[in-house]
Amino acid sequence: MAQKRKATVDFQLLDNGTATATITGALDAAGNTVPVPAGTTVPVWTSSNPAITVVAAADGMSAKLTPAAIATGVI
User: Fold this and answer.
1) What is the dihedral of CA 33, 54, 3, 59, to 10 degrees?
2) What's the pTM value of the predicted model, to 2 decimals?
3) Rg of the chain on CA atoms, in Å
4) What sign does the dihedral 65-67-72-75 (CA atoms) show?
């Protein structure tokens, strides 16, 4: 079984409702950010909401999230 690791993620939400999530590092045992270890298995990007389309980048370390519709009237 693969070892589970915690990671740091950069998340950018654009005005058009799409978002980009990028793994920027891993966390060591002390909680400090370190480079992603060589040979790390790329993640499987998913959403718990079926109205969100998730497309992983070719390198697997980032993904674009696109909603089926943009929410309106949200404050």
Assistant:
1) -70
2) 0.72
3) 15
4) negative
Amino acid at 61: M
pLDDT in tens, 44-74: 899 988 888 999 999 899 999 999 887 776 6
Backbone angles phi, psi at 22, to 5 degrees: -130, 130
Query: What's the gap between Cα 21 and its chain centre?
Result: 4
Q: Which residues pair with 19 in a beta bridge?
A: 13, 65
At 49, the amino acid letter reads: N
For the segment 23-36, what is each residue's pLDDT rounded down to a tens digit?
A: 888 888 888 888 88
